[in-house]
């Protein structure tokens, strides 16, 4: 059997153990991807094992805040934990949104542990053609 170790993963795990789980006053970061797809800006957050009712999404002016809490799985008295690597606690991410995004029409979808936000680009920010008018004649400036 081939076993591969990642020293950085071990450092992350050790740091998580030393600092403890994230709290509401000191949340841990969550991984995300952000990209533009057509006329929408898409942001995807990794939140595996988080219940949809434990996710909070707020927009204030142009600041988007996503907070989530991964709670421990209920255990009985006869359960003895052998290994626990999945982080628990509060996770948070804040993003400053451009003024060109329509924050009134954000759509959120949660599927397979991924929270996906779709933010439409505002009409005023979309490229448009400007027609050029032809003048009625030349004017001279005398001085």
Description:
The N and C termini lie far apart (93 Å). By secondary structure, this protein is mostly beta strands. Strand 2 and strand 3 form a beta hairpin. Helices cover 9% and strands 34% of the residues. The strands form 2 sheets. A 4-stranded mixed β-sheet has the order 1-6-5-4, with no helix packed on it. It is elongated. The relative contact order is 0.21. The protein is built from 1 helix and 8 strands, in the order H-E-E-E-E-E-E-E-E.
Structural topology:
Layout: H1 7-19, E1 28-29, E2 32-37, E3 40-46, E4 55-60, E5 63-70, E6 89-96, E7 107-111, E8 114-120
Give the N-to-C terminal Cα separation.
93 Å
As a percent range, the share of helical residues equals under 10%
Query: From N to C, what is the helix and strand string?
Result: HEEEEEEEE
Range of strand content: 25-35%
Number of strands: 8
Mean pLDDT across all amino acids = 81
SS field, number of helical segments:
1
The structure class reads mainly beta
Low-confidence spans: pLDDT under 50, at least 5 residues?
none
Major sheet size, sense and barrel closure: 4 strands, mixed
Strand order of the largest sheet: 1-6-5-4
Can you tell me the overall shape? elongated
Give me the Rg, rounded.
Answer: 24 Å
